[in-house]
Amino acid sequence: MASVESKTLQKQFAIAFIEKIAPSNLSFRQRLILVLEARGFLLEQRDGKIFLSDNSYLKVAGDLADNDFLDQLLRQTGIGQVNERNITISGECSTEALVDFFLKHDGCEGFGYSFDDWANFQRRQHGQKIPLYLLDPFVSRLVKTISAIGINTHYSCDGHGENKIQLGMSSKYYRAWFETVMRALWANDTSPTCQWKFVKERLLEISNPESDVLALYEEIQRVAQLLYNNRITLRRSKSLCLAGLSEGEVINLSCRQLVKVFWDRSGDILLDLGLGNPLKASA
To answer: Where are the domains of the chain?
Structure first.
């Protein structure tokens, strides 16, 4: 549970963050869409209409579905509603209300999902869909994105205003595939601005070397956007990489050895995607 001090710090960063990603010179509709995407809502736009993607957590099984969560937020703020997956924007609100909207969540990702077996990893095209209301706001888009490219997580934390974001991968296989994808992502750059480092076998920590928390949040957003935009091809790349690979060939391998195996089998495919460096793309 975040302290009062960390909540205050988080809100200060949220104000600066939203002013950065959704400047006031844009229309309210444009700003709201950018804030929704930054918060982890996976959107589609067709014929001037806005929908939640089917990559979202839409089922109801004891948890609050993403469409119901968004409907609550829009109605409480007085700016719209959601009917199934269709989003209607019918009003406007202040930047301060957008900040409160963005920060709203009620729990944490800590399901204890294991999914650590090879068969589960090999067959999954999409990771476990996690209810958005449980995710910390500044890490939620990344969690939702890596789920959409076939990677399971069981824990995440946005640091609550501190210079540290954490993601827990569900198994060594998911960690190794994530590292393989990120290797391709950074291929055209000497290094990312932030440090992406596994401090334990399955625990990833992301931090900014200059302790610039806002820059950390921005990099998370850009990486998430780039990966999500390539989700279909990344799923296919995973399937091609794992095709014909047996559990007996990988079960005793370390994470480093798994990355080598995955890269040898899929590196050229991933590089051909031309993911490039997300820091060169506009936020």
So the answer is: 4-103, 118-280
